[in-house]
Amino acid sequence: MRRRLLVLVAATTTLVLVAFLVPLALLVRDVAADRAVQAATVEAQALTSLVATADAPSLALTVEHFDATSRFDVTVFLPGGERLGAEADRTPLVELGERGSSASAEADGGREIVFAVGGPDSSAGVIRTFVPDAELRQGVARAWLALAGLGIALLLVGLLVADRLGRRLVRGATDLAAVSHRLGRGELDARADPSAPSELGVVATALNRLAGRITDLLREERETIADLSHRVRTPLTTLRMDAEALPAGEQSERIVADVDAVDRAVTDVIGQARRRGTAPAGATTDAADVVRERAAFWAVLAEDTDRELTVDVAAGPLPVALARGDLEACVDALLGNVFAHTPHGTAFTVRLETREGGGARLVVADEGPGLPSGQTTGVLRRGVSGSGSSGLGLDIVRRTAEQSGGGVRLDSPAGGGLTVVVELGAG
């Protein structure tokens, strides 16, 4: 932007200076020529009375002296063919002057001026003055250099002013971009300078208002989630008391563990809501440990529903750039989808392997009906489901993978089944 502004100002200023200085330079040249011609004319006219009245010897001395002291070549042609003063040919213009006509014309190397001098009875002679080009252009070069210097100075001043203005505009735009990036990273306390020039100040004010509005909305969201969590904890407490009142045994312990898992999930939701809007601190989690733990948790339900579960987890640690709670939610969403969208008795596999370049690759494959044709990409969007559910499970998986610097890929073969490949970035 700054460079474009300088180019624009340079082009505009140059056009204006050319339109102004070129006619002025031509005028200076014409004025210098007119000045030289006028001086030669005045000097030649001073001899007119002498040519008409003086005797030949006196006239010869006067013309010789005049020619020697003048800046111009002065020649007097007498009627008898005699020539006084500077050497000069009898040009057509001189012949025209002998017939009584005064005139001037361009000649080789300068300008020729002829005055016809009339006597009492006939022509008394012709005065010829020659103005060389050097006299016609005297002072023109200096004037043109001065005009060129003035033009360059004006151009530099214009570029300097444009550079200062462009620097201020660019700095304002750069500051706006920097504030936008900070807001995008979650630094909601970032604010732009509203004193930026003209429209940039308006944009900065609008951006600050937007940042303030986002902060207010996030605060309201956190408060709403806190209220909801408080409401959920009351029935959870009742459910825990009912579970603990059951006869001691494996079933009672499993129900209590399930209630604890729900309680932890609610706590994680609250924690995530409170962290939202602040710069991420950056966490690292051992994916191998988390996948083993969650697979063991879901293995009980798999046994109850007659599902064959195969777990293949590479030897850890396999650090990934995620908080433990986020990774647990991702694994639970994947395994929960298997139970929710496949019939009882459907076998599935959980595999975790080292990812090239660091991180881990989590693969969950089932032998269920799979996804309808053409939906292997659309179901990753939030709220989109291929089986009528809320459509949030795979969206959680996608956002978690992207948060770590990875991604998600779905594969639904024609023979049935679904394979979800989650790339998790290194911690």
UniProtKB/TrEMBL annotation:
The chain crosses the membrane at residues 143-162. It is an enzyme of class 2 (transferase). CDD domains: HAMP (cd06225), HisKA (cd00082). Residues 167-219 form the HAMP domain. The keyword Transcription does not apply. Its cofactor is Mn(2+); Mg(2+). It catalyses: ATP + protein L-histidine = ADP + protein N-phospho-L-histidine. GO terms for molecular function: ATP binding; phosphoprotein phosphatase activity; phosphorelay sensor kinase activity. It is a multi-pass membrane protein. Residues 227-427 form the Histidine kinase domain. It is found in: Cell membrane. Residues 367-386 are annotated as: Disordered. The keyword Ion transport does not apply. GO terms for cellular component: plasma membrane. Its EC number is 2.7.13.3. Keywords: ATP-binding, Cell membrane, Hydrolase, Kinase, Magnesium, Manganese, Membrane, Nucleotide-binding, Phosphoprotein, Protein phosphatase, Stress response, Transferase, Transmembrane, Transmembrane helix, Two-component regulatory system, Virulence. InterPro entries: 2C_sensor_his_kinase (IPR050980), HAMP_dom (IPR003660), HATPase_C_sf (IPR036890), HATPase_dom (IPR003594), His_kinase_dom (IPR005467), HisK_dim/P_dom (IPR003661), HisK_dim/P_sf (IPR036097), Sig_transdc_His_kin-like_C (IPR004358). This is Signal transduction histidine-protein kinase/phosphatase MprB. The lineage of its organism: Bacteria, Bacillati, Actinomycetota, Actinomycetes, Jiangellales.
